[in-house]
Amino acid sequence: MAVRPITVIGHKALHSPTKKVKEVTDEIRTLVADMYDTMEAADGVGLAANQVGSRLRIFVYDCPVPDGPNARGEVINPVLERLGTPAPVDEEEDGEGCLSVPGEWFPLARHPRARVTGTDLEGNEVVIEGEGLLARCLQHETDHLDGYLYVDRLTARFKSEAREAVKDRGWAADGVLRWDPSSTTADKV
């Protein structure tokens, strides 16, 4: 399969809700395979379809979980349930990053548990429930599909720091960028 370029903060695809998948086609199977390759090349734990230029409601994940193999799979048309109450943000423990905001990490309080339901490529129902990093991943990727980046959910202090980081990297001044995780170069879109 192929590694696809990843869109960077500011691209309109990242700020628009995605469309439900009506039928799994060969094109969608190729998209999902490419998303796994892209996520692996970028050393990520999750990737939403709109991060690679598709407006479809799909994400893939390969997330470490304590005392076991990584939780790995794809979810088509995910529906998210946030479970529990977020604790106050812990600046040391609650750092979150994003492949569409590469190189930046900011503290973000998330719900301690999450459940996502949807289907896989074969049309089978999937239910993924997790806590810790997996809960964060499920919330983060579903947010992407709803048109939100994690930086949109930051507290005022960290949102200001995120804006400065985007400005310092030149993304705001130079136009929207994408980067190729197979070569780590960025290009104007």
Automatic annotation (TrEMBL):
<comment type="function">
    <text>Removes the formyl group from the N-terminal Met of newly synthesized proteins. Requires at least a dipeptide for an efficient rate of reaction. N-terminal L-methionine is a prerequisite for activity but the enzyme has broad specificity at other positions.</text>
</comment>
<feature type="binding site">
    <location>
        <position position="144"/>
    </location>
    <ligand>
        <name>Fe cation</name>
    </ligand>
</feature>
<keyword id="KW-0378">Hydrolase</keyword>
<feature type="binding site">
    <location>
        <position position="140"/>
    </location>
    <ligand>
        <name>Fe cation</name>
    </ligand>
</feature>
<dbReference type="GO" id="GO:0006412">
    <property type="term" value="P:translation"/>
</dbReference>
<comment type="similarity">
    <text>Belongs to the polypeptide deformylase family.</text>
</comment>
<protein>
    <recommendedName>
        <fullName>Peptide deformylase</fullName>
        <ecNumber>3.5.1.88</ecNumber>
    </recommendedName>
</protein>
<dbReference type="GO" id="GO:0042586">
    <property type="term" value="F:peptide deformylase activity"/>
</dbReference>
<dbReference type="GO" id="GO:0046872">
    <property type="term" value="F:metal ion binding"/>
</dbReference>
<keyword id="KW-0479">Metal-binding</keyword>
<dbReference type="InterPro" id="IPR023635">
    <property type="entry name" value="Peptide_deformylase"/>
</dbReference>
<feature type="binding site">
    <location>
        <position position="98"/>
    </location>
    <ligand>
        <name>Fe cation</name>
    </ligand>
</feature>
<keyword id="KW-0648">Protein biosynthesis</keyword>
<dbReference type="InterPro" id="IPR036821">
    <property type="entry name" value="Peptide_deformylase_sf"/>
</dbReference>
<feature type="active site">
    <location>
        <position position="141"/>
    </location>
</feature>
<keyword id="KW-0408">Iron</keyword>
<dbReference type="Pfam" id="PF01327">
    <property type="entry name" value="Pep_deformylase"/>
</dbReference>
